[in-house]
Structures are given as structure tokens and as C-alpha cells.
Amino acid sequence: MNNKKYIGLEDLEVYQIAREISKLGWKIYEKFDWQIKKVIGDQFIRAIDSTGANIAEGYGRYHYLDRIKFFYNARGSLLESQHWSELIKERNLAEEKDLSSLLELIKKLHPKLNNFIKANFKTKNGKQEKFS
């Protein structure tokens, strides 16, 4: 009998952090005026929300290579989120406190997401793939 416990999406630490990033990103985005939303805000919030969405979609895939493709997309979106957040900070378009908290969460998620990808990267026979 298989006693493995299924871990739900909501229980994944990487997903929980991504959702916190989305909440804080939205708090920042909704304070932008129309012009800032159009010029930088839309790309910012899409990248922010895409991180968690790709983790969720990847987690729902069966084949490990399919899962990992979405986790890589999540990592790309996370780094794009960092880029837009740093530009917003440089241009003083949002509160320093909120942006610092957001960037802290992004930097916290990045290595955890890398480790999550490594843990999911298995060969056909179930052995862990080696990374350098």
C-alpha cells in the first residue's frame, strides 16, 4: 500500500510566497495613476501574477519535463518581476517600504524556486538528475 501523502498546491512554500508577492504587487499597482499603469504597471503586475500562475500550472502537469517547463517560466517571470520592481523603485513610483518588502520576497523565492525545480527534475528511472 502506498502511504505517500499528496501535497496540495496551497501547501507548497514556493506557491505561498508567490501569492504573497502577488498580494503586495497588487497593493503597489492599484495606487498607480492611469498613465503609470499603462506604461509600466501592466507589465509589472502581469509578471508578478505570472510567477504563481506558472507554478500552479506546472504543478498540475503529469510529466516531469512538462512541469519543469512551467517552473522555468515561473522563474523567468520572477526575474522579470524583480526588474520591473527595481525600475519602479528607481523612478520613485511607489512607496519605498512596499517595494523593499516586495523585493525581499522576490529574493527569498528565487533560491527556493531553483531548489523546487531541482527536486522535480528526475530522470525516467526516478533518480535525481545532477546539477552543477
Explain this structure to me?
It is a single chain. This protein has 132 residues and is an all-alpha fold. It has one domain: 23S rRNA-intervening sequence (de novo design (two linked rop proteins)), CATH 1.20.1440. It has four helices and no strands. The protein has helices at 13-29, 34-59, 64-90, 96-120. α3 packs antiparallel against α4. The protein is elongated and about 55 Å long. The protein starts with 12 loop residues before the first helix and ends in a 12-residue tail after the last helix. The relative contact order is 0.15. Mean pLDDT is 90; it is low at 128-132.
Short description:
The protein has helices spanning 13-29, 34-59, 64-90, 96-120.
Oligomer: single chain
The gross shape turns out to be elongated
Low-confidence stretches: 128-132
Q: Which CATH C-level class is it?
A: Mainly Alpha
Structural key phrases:
single chain, 132 residues, mainly alpha, de novo design (two linked rop proteins), 72% helix
Task: Describe the secondary structure blueprint for this structure.
Elements: H1 13-29, H2 34-59, H3 64-90, H4 96-120
